[in-house]
Amino acid sequence: MAENVRILLKEEEVDKRIAEVAAMINRDYAGKEVHLICILKGGVFFTCELAKRLTVPVSMDFMSVSSYGSGTESSGVVRIVKDLDESIAGKNVLIVEDIIDSGRTLAYLIEILKQRNPESIHLCTLLDKPERRVKKQVKVDYTCFEIPDEFVVGFGLDYDQKYRNLPYIGVVEFQ
Ligand SMILES: O=P(O)(O)OC[C@H]1O[C@H](OP(=O)(O)OP(=O)(O)O)[C@H](O)[C@@H]1O
Ligand code: HPA
């Protein structure tokens, strides 16, 4: 099926907002080290842009989870494909995601990570689709943009593994 991508958030808007959110994190974590956990694959682009703007000490780790589902819907059953390399015990963890949609992936992930005794655990996302949230509420500490219920790509987000490299956020329109 052919698809078209309509720009929702321009590159400049995204960059400006990431800088604002980074400033909030710098303020909130003053005097502490923040341990960024990037959720692969989509979180990579946002994590890099955010991390470059942090002035507090930063350490990083990566995790890959797969939500059993098909097409554009996640199922809520989440499998860890790549676990963290290091312990998070005693660390100030900040999970960095590209998008919170139904909230199922993050609800599951936060429960798992809490059991590993971090000093604190917070969540930062580039995009949030609040309308899509199912049963479990996920507390999001830092959100760059709330967006409507549309399937988006770019800045790490894919459709069928394509469009992750777009420097803006676009809506996929199927023709
Ligand atoms: O709130 P939810 O409905 O659970 O959806 C959000 C999840 O979906 C996306 O990951 P995806 O499974 O597409 O993996 P990817 O980042 O590797 O593309 C996104 O990065 C979140 O992890
Ligand atoms: O809107 C989306 N786009 C790409 N991947 C996603 N995963 C959950 N929601 C989305």
Quick structural overview:
The chain is α/β, with parallel strands linked by helices. The protein contains 3 helices and 9 strands, in the order E-H-E-H-E-E-E-H-E-E-E-E.
Q: Notable features of this structure?
A:
single chain, 175 residues, alpha/beta, Rossmann fold, six-stranded mixed beta sheet, three-stranded antiparallel beta sheet, 3 helices, 9 strands, 22% helix, globular, binds 1-O-pyrophosphono-5-O-phosphono-alpha-D-ribofuranose, binds hypoxanthine
Any overview of this molecule?
This protein has three helices and nine strands. With 175 residues, it is an alpha/beta fold. The protein has a single domain (11-149), classed as 3-Layer(aba) Sandwich (Rossmann fold). The strands form two sheets. A six-stranded mixed β-sheet has the order 4-3-2-5-6-7. It is globular and about 50 Å long. The relative contact order is 0.22. The mean pLDDT is 93. Hypoxanthine (HPA) binds at residues 99, 101, 151-153, 157-158.
